[in-house]
Amino acid sequence: MLDKNPGPATERSFLATLAAIAWSFVGLRRKADFDRDVTALNPVYVILAGLIGVALLIATLVGVVAFATR
Hints:
mainly alpha
């Protein structure tokens, strides 16, 4: 039988958290990766990565609008 529990969760690095958040912003994430992230990501890292992602998204949108209205 296949064991659906991957074993003990190991905490992932901040860069791994940034990658997980980036894929979440795009909307492309495998279920297996999501399940691993749920148990392994540090909540503080997730909040920081989310704030960085939102800031980058807003800066990109403001830049595109500024470029388009010139």
